[in-house]
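### Sample
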Amino acid sequence: MNDGANGGVNRGRTLRDAALLVAVIVGLALTVAIGVATYLGYRYVTEEKLVSTDKDGVATAQVVAATLYGRSDLRVSRLSGVVQGTARSSRLWGWLNASQVVKAPFEVNYFVNMARLDASDFRMSEDGRRIEITVPDVTVERPNVDLARTSLNNVTGVFVTRNAMMEMGTKVAASAQRTAAERANSAENRTKAREYGREAIARLFTGALRAARVDAEVSVRFEGEPRAADGERWDMSRSLEEVLGQAK
C-alpha cells in the first residue's frame, strides 16, 4: 500500500514538474516574442516615423539607418532613359480635383546570380575544345527613378491642398517606377540583356580558362533554354576541377 501511495505521489510530482517546465518554456518564449516585437516596433517608429535631429534638436539631412550587404551578382546590362509618371487626386467628393505629371531619368540594372554556379553547371565536349556553362536567368532590378532631377513637374488644379500634394507625390513616383519596370521587363529588353550577359560571362570564363592554360571555346546557356542539337558528344564524367587539374 505504501509503495502504491509513494508511486502515486511521485507520478503526481512528475506531472507537476513537467507542467511547471512547460509553463516556464512558454513564458520564456512569450517574453522573447514580446521583446522582439517591441524592438522591431521601436526600430520602425524610430527609423520611419520620428524626425531625426542633431544635438540641438534641429532636423538635419542624415543617414538614419544603413546596412551593407555582400553580393555576387554580375551586372550584365543596364537600361536608362526618361520616364513619365502621372497622378490624380480628388477632394470634396469630386469637386476639388488635381493632377500631376513628372518626367525624370531612370535606370534599371540586369544581373546574373553567379553564386548559384557549381561544377555541375559546366560540361565539356568529348574532344575538350568546348565548354558549355549553364547559368541562372537574368534578373531585373527594381527601377531607380531619380525624382530629384525631374525635367518636368506640372501640377494642375484650382486649389491643391497639402494632403493632395503628398498623395500625388507618392502616386506619381509609383507610376513612374511601374512604367519603367514594364519597359525593363519587356521581351525585347530581356532578350537583349541575355545576349549581353552571354557575351560578358563567356569573356569572363574564357579569360579564367586561358590563365589556367585550358584552350577551349566557352558557350553560355541560360536555364530553361534548349540545348543545340549539333550531334556533338559531351563528356560529363569529369568535373571542372579535374579539367583544370589536368591542364596544369
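The radius of gyration is 31 Å. This sample (DUF4230 domain-containing protein) is used throughout the tutorial notebook.
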